[in-house]
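#random but structural
TW: two for the price of one
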Amino acid sequence: MQKLKLVMIGNGMAGVRTLEELFKLTPNRYEITVFGEEPHPNYNRILLSPVLAGEQTVDEIVLNPLEWYAEHGIDLRLGRKAVKIDRLRRIVHADDGSEAHYDRLLIATGSKPFVLPVPGRDLPGVISYRDIADTEAMIAAAGRYKHAVVIGGGLLGLEAANGLKLRGMDVTVVHIGEWLLERQLDRVAGKLLQASLEQRGLKFALQKQTAELVGAGPGAAEPGRVAALRFKDGEEIPADLVVMAVGIRPNTELAESAGLQCSRGIVVSDTLQTFDPRIYAVGECVNHRGTAYGLVAPLFEQARVCANHLAGWGYGRYTGSVLSTKLKVTGIDLFSAGDFMGGEGCEEITLADPVGGVYKKLVLKDDRLIGACLYGDTADGAWYFRLLKDGAPVGAMRDHLMWGEQNLGDTGHAGENRAAAMADDAEVCGCNGVKKGVIVKAIREQGLTTLDEVKKHTKASGSCGSCAGLCEQILMNCLGSSFDATPKTRTVCGCTDRTHQAVRDAIRERHLLTIPDTMRALEWRTPNGCASCRPALNYYLISTWPGEAQDDPQSRFVNERVHANIQKDGTYSVVPQMKGGVTNAAELRRIADVADKYRIPLVKVTGGQRIDLLGVKKEDLVGVWRDLDMPSGHAYGKSIRTVKTCVGSEFCRFGTQNSTQMGIDLETMLACMWSPHKVKLAVSGCPRNCAEAGIKDVGVIGVESGWELYVGGNGGIKTEVAQFFAKVASAEEVMEYSGAFLQLYREEGFYLERTVHYLARVGLEHARRQVVEDAGRRRELFERLKYALSFGQDPWAERVRGAQRHEYEAIGA
C-alpha cells in the first residue's frame, strides 16, 4: 500500500510529540517531511534556563537526536523556513527554493516573542528569549558586559535574570505588575518570591513602564549599542543587555497567507483540524475554542488527539484543558491551579511561614476545591489538582486538607513515600499527562530499572523534571533492592560523553593519576577540558588515589586556589579554625592584632561559631595567616567546613553528653577533608538540639543512652531536614559511623552533589547497609578515610612556607 505524504512545519515539542504519538498508532502510514527553521533537532525549550545558568549543555536538552529522525525515515530539513503553503496543489515551499508535497499537513509553528513597540527596540544588545540562539547570545553578552535588564516578571523573565546573575551580571527585572508571576501566584506568594530572589542579588523595578531604550553615544566604546533603559517617569537605569520577556504571540503568518482562518491563533476544531480538513495544527500557534495555550501539558494533549486523527482512527476529541502550573523558579518550587485568587462566595484556607519559605492557599466554594496556590512546598500539588478536576466534595477532609494527602489516614509519615499512597489513575507527570499506572506497567512489562529509561518509554519527567523524585519513588517501590538510581546519561560536561560514574570507575580501574592522563585515556573532546570538568576530574583523582594523584591547583575554583573566600569587591575573607566553636584569649588577641595591623574592615562571628575577617587584600593573605598562626577553617572549599556544637553536659544543666568535646574530636579527625561538596556537621548535647544538628550533612544528638546520628541535612536555599541514620552508645562509635558515612559519600558522590542529593540518588537504605548493618564494610570505609586524611596538610601553613607564591603576588585571580 502506497504511503501518504505528511509534511510538518515546525520542529518543536508539540509537533514532534504528535509524530511520536502517531508512530505508536500507525508507524508506517506516512512518508514524513519536517521543516525546522532552527539548525537543531527537537529540544526541550523548558530547559533553556538551565543552559543559560550553566547547569546543562545544549546537547543535554535535545529530546529527539538526529538518529531518531533517521530511524523513523523522516526527511528532516533543518535550517529551512517554510514560506508558502499552496493549498490547491498541496505543496509547501521553503526559503531555499525546495518544496514538499503533502496529503496531510501539520502546522506546528509555535509562537513568537512579543517585543515592546518602544524606541530603541532594534538597537544591538536588545534580544528576546525564545530559542537556543537567544540563549547563546545572552551567554556571550554575559562574558563581555556588566549591566543586564530583563523586561518581564513572568517565568521566562525570572529564569533569564537568574541565569545572567549566575554568569556574573548585575541584573534588574522590570515588571509592569504589582508582583511577580501574577498569572501563576497571588500577591503574598509573589512577594515571597521577590524577597527570596532579592536575597540572591536580583534587583526589581515593579509597576514601571518602559518608555525608551537609549543607545550609547558617539564617544562610547560601542556607539549605537543599547546603554540604558528610560522609564515613563523619566528615571534611567544602565543596560548593556536588554532581554524582552514580556509574552508570546501565536505564529500565524504562514497560515494567514494560505487563507486559513486565524484569530489570536490558527482556529482549529476539537479534532485539531483547520477548516481545510487536510491541514491540522497543534501547539502555541493554535486557537481552540477561543484559547491559545502556552503550557506544555495542554499542547501534549492536543498532540495525542491530532495523532489519533492522522492515524485514521477518528475518535479522539480535544475539549480544552484544565490548567495547573508547577514551576521551579531558580530552585524555588511553585504550584497553582484553578481560581486561586478567590472572590465572592469563596472560602480561603491559608498557611504562611515566611521564615521557613512556605505559603499555601486553598480556595473552596460550595464544599469543593476550586483553586490552590503553593509556594516552597508543592509536594501535594498533584493531589490538589486531582481534587479540583474531579470536583469532589472536601467537607469530610476539610480539617486535614491543608496538610496534604499523606495526613488523611494511616498511610505512613508525611513525605515518607508519596508514590506508594498514590492510586494508579493519579497523575504523576503533569507536563505529559502520565499517570502512575502507566509508569508501573512500563517498569514491569519492559524491565525498566532507571529514571532515564522511564523518561524514554513514558515521557514522565521528560519536560520540566519536577516529577523526577516521584518517578524514582515509583521505580524504587516496583524494583526494591534492584532499583538503580544512577543517572546513566548525566555526562560530566560537553567535553565528553562519559558520565560522572563512568569517569570515577575508569580512574579506579585504570589507576589514572593526573588530569592529562585521564583526558587522554577517556578520549576527551577538548584537550584541556573546561571549567566544569577540570575541578571534577581533580576531585575524583585525589579522592580515589590519595597520596598518589597529583592535586592540580589550577583546576580548582579561585576560593580553593587561594584558600580564602573572594568577596564582591575583590578582597577576601579569612576564617581561622575554631574546633567546635571553642577559642581562647590568646587566639582572640592575635585576631584583634591582625585586624588592626592589616586594617581589616569587618570582623564578624559566623553562623558556624567562628570569626570571619572580611576585606583582606590578596597580597596580605599570607601575612594574615602567618600572624594569626591558626589552622585554616576551610570556609572556602568543597570540603569539611565546621562542626557546630552546643555547651553540652560540661556546663549546661540539660546536657546529657559532652557535645563540645565530641565536636572538637570530629573536627580534628576531619581536618583537610576534600569532598564532592561542602560538608557541615553539628553536635548537640541533648534532644533540645541547640546546635541545629537536624539540618547538617552529619548531625549528632546526645541522648541519655548515647548518641543519635542523622545524615543528609542542608540549611541552604531549600532547607532539607536530616534523616535518622543510627543510634550508637559511645563517642568512638560516633567517630567511626560518621567517618564511614562521609567516606562512602566521598567515594560515591558526584562532584558538586550535596549529601542530601547523593542520598536522594542512592537511597538512605543503601548507605545504612554499607555503614550501619555491615560492620566490616564500615571499618573498611573508616580506615580508608583515615588513610586519605593522613596526607592532609594545612594549606595556610604551606603558603606561609612559600607554596604557590605566584598566586599572591598579583592582585586579582
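TW: number two ↓
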Amino acid sequence: MNLYVNTGYEMEQEGQKDIAHYIEHLPFAMYLDEATAHGGALLEAVRSGKYPWQGYTNVRQTCYLFLFDTIGSEIYTTELDLLSRIIGGGLKSTPENLAAEHGSFYQEYIHRNGHLGYDEERLFWNLSKVYAPPVRPEHYFEHVKGFNWDAVSSFYKDWYHPQRATLVMVGPITDLDQAAQDIEAHFGKLKATPAQELAYPKRAYLEHPNQFIQVEQEDTDTLEYAETKIDLYWRNQTPPKAASKALQHKWMYEMLYELIGDHLRQIPTTYDLHYTLGIDRSGQLPALGLNLKTFMGREQDAVEHVAVALEQLKKQGVAEGAYQKYRQKELKSIDQRDSNTLGAVLSAYDERIRAEEFLEFDQLALKKRWLNGLSYDTVNSELKAFLRDGPQDIGILAPKGASVLQLSEIQFRSWLDEAKRMNTAADEYETKLIADSLIAQLTQEDSKDLGSDALGGHRIQLANGVRVVLYPQEGAPLKLHGFRNVGASNLNKQDFIKAHLVPEWLHTSGIGAYTHFELQRVLTDLGMIYGRALYVNQGESGIQLQAPAERLESLLQLAHLYLSAPREDPEAFTYWKEDEFLFYKNPPYGREEHDLTVLSKNVLKEVNPGLTAEERYKAVQLSTMTELKEIYQSLFLHPQEFLFLLSGDFSETEVIPLLETYLGNLRVSENQVKREEKVISYLPKGPLEKLYMIPGILPSDLNLKIQYTFPIAREDWKAQVNLKLMREVINTRLWELRHIKKRGLYIIHAISHSDMELQRGNLTIILPTVAGMEQVLSSDVEELVSWFKEHPIAKSELKTIKSRFYVKGITGKSIIDEGYRYYKWGTILPEPEAVKAYIEEVSAQDIQTWIQEKLVPEHRYIFMGKGVPEARN
C-alpha cells in the first residue's frame, strides 16, 4: 500500500531545506510508538521483521510504503488509519519524537555523505533556483534542530491535503468491494482543504535565459591537488501538452541521454588529462547534464577533449549499431516484463506518479509502438538538433585562486568551439588481449593429472608448478580464483604497507599493451567484467576474475597478463598518485568508518585489518614505481606456489590446452620472499574501551562500535550458525533504541562474522550517533543484552528469523567458495540439508543460553571514533 503526497523539495523555502524529508520520518515514528503502546499483531510483526515499511522524498513527491498480509487484518486497518490521518491533518508528532528525529535525520545526512556535497549544492542552487539554499555542514545539525512543531506544522499545512494525495494498493486482493469500502470509509470523508498554488520551476527554468555561473569552493583542500567541477547543461525542449506526445518527448530524451552517455564512455582518455565525466540523470532539471571534474589548471584540456567527442556526435551522429542495441534492449525489456507482479505494478505507478503522468495509459504498449515506428535517421536528426546549440547553461565550481573563475563566458565557450576545428574521426582499436604473434611464442607442455579432490574437482599440475582445480558447471559463468599463502606480513616493515598499494597501482597502470582506459574498453566490448583483479592482504596474495562462458580463452589470457606483464609507465604512476589523492579526499565510504574499522581491528590483532586512509595516503606519496614493481614480483611471480580454482561452463578437453598455454607460461621471478607462518591467537582481555580522534569528520559526530569476540573453530559450523542466530535475535530489539528510547539514531544494526583465519566469532553492534551519547548508548546495549539473558525470544519471532536464515553463508556461496575454504584450511562445508535440519532443532532457550555464555564482559570491546575540531581549519 503506497501513499503518494504531492510535496517535496521544490516546495521548500528559505530556511526549510530538507524539511519535506524530515516530515516523511515522523509518521513512522508515530506508527511504532502506537505499535509499542498497543502490542498485538502489529508489535509482533515489527519485532519479527515481518512488517517492512519505508518512505522516500523526491523533488515533487513524498511516498509512504507499508506492507500488509490480508484485507481486514489488524495491520491493514492500522495502516489505513495512519495514512488517512497523514493527509487529513492528523500528523501530530510528540516533542519527544521531534527531538529524537533531529538526531536520526542528521545521522542520515552524514551516512549519505551529504556534507561532501555542500559546494555542489551551492552550484546547483545558483543554476536552478528550484530548491531552498543549501546549509553549511557544520551548521546542519543546528538547522535540523530548528524543525520544531511550528516549522513542521507550517509546511505540513501548506502541502499535505487530500486532493494532493494518491493511494495505490496492490496484491492478491480477493474482496475488491470490501477494500473499496474500507478506502471510502478512511479517505472518502476527508474534507478538501485549501492548499498553496503549485508552481512549476522546471518550466520556468526552460524559459530562463542561458546562464554562466562561477562559484568559489568554500573550503579548498590544503593538500597537494585541488579539483574544479564543471557542469554543462543542454536543455530539453518544452514538453507538448498532449499526454501521448509528452510521453514520446520524454522517451526520446531518455534515449538521447543513453546514447550520448555510451558514446562519451568510449572517449580514449589519457593519463595526462585526468578527468572524470558523468551524466546527471537525477531528473532535477529538464536537461542533459555533463558533470566534469578535473584538477585545477587542466580545465581547458579536459573541456576540449570532451567537446571533441560531442562534435563527432554532431557531425556523424550515433552509430546505427548503438541505436539498434538500445532499441532492442528496450523492446526486449517490454516483452519480458511481467506487469502483473506486485513489484512491477508498484514500480510502474511509482514512476508515473513521480513524473506526474496519466495513470490509465498502457505505457508499455504505447512505448513499443513508438519504438517500432522510429527510424535511425529520425533519432540522429533529433540528436544533432539537441546538441547543436548547447550547452545552454554552464556552472563552474573551482578552488580559490583558480584562473577559471576569472574567465568570461565568451572565453569559456571558445574552448568548446575549438573542438569544431579539430579532427573528429572515430578511433579504431583492437579487441584482442594478446596478439597472435605473442601467443605463438608461448610453449605448451603437458600437465600432470592429480586425480579428484573431496569436492569432486579435477586436479592438475602444469609444467611450471601451477596447480589448478577444475569444477565444471553447466550453464554457469566462468569464475577464476588463484591464490598464494604469502602476503604483506611476509615482507619487511617498510614494504608491508606498500604491498597493499600494489593491486591499485597495477589496476591504474594497465597490463600488456593496454593502458587502464584501453583495457576497460576492450573488456567492455568482450562482455567481461572490468575491475580490480589482484588483491593483497596480510597473509595472502591472489587474483579473482569472471567472464561469460564463451570467453574462456580471454579469461585465461587476462590472468596471464595480470600475473606476468604489468605496464611500467611514469605517466600512469603519476596518475595513480593523483587518483589516490581523490580517494583520500572523498572515499566511497566514510573516511572515519574506514579508520575506526582498521584501528579497532589492529587492537584485536586481526590478520587483515587493512590500512587507515591516513596510512594509505602517506604510503602512496612515499612510494616509487621501482619499489612497487619489486613487491609485485615478490608476491605474484611465483606460479609454483599458486593454486587456481576454475568453475563454470567449459569442457575439460577444451580448457586443459588453454591452461597449459597461458597459466603454464607464467614466469618465475628471482625476487623471492620467504614465507613465514604467523598464527596470531592473542586477544586482549575484555572489557576494553578505546576512543580515537579521527581527522576528517565533524566534531559533533561519533561512531560507536560495540563488539563481542570469542573463539569459534573453523570446522564448527554449528557454532557459526549460532552466531548468526544470536545476531538476528539481537536485531529484533535494536529498533527500540531509536523508537522507544528515542536516542536519535539512524543506523542501528548488528553484524556477525566468523573469522576463519583466527578462528573467532565476532558480533558487532554499530551505532553512529553524536558526541555525548557514548555512555548512554553503551548502557542501552548492555541493558538490551541483559534482557535477552533473562527472557527467551518469542517462538513466533524465532520462526520468522529461521525462515529468512541465509544458509549459503554457512554452506558457501559457490563451488569456488567451497574450494577456497577446502584448500586454504582443509574445511569441508556442510550440506544445506544438514544446516536446515540443525536450525529447525534450535529453540528459543538454546539461543538464550548462547547469549548468556558468549555475550559477556570478558568478550566485549567498545571502540569510538570522534571528529577533531582542528581538522576543518
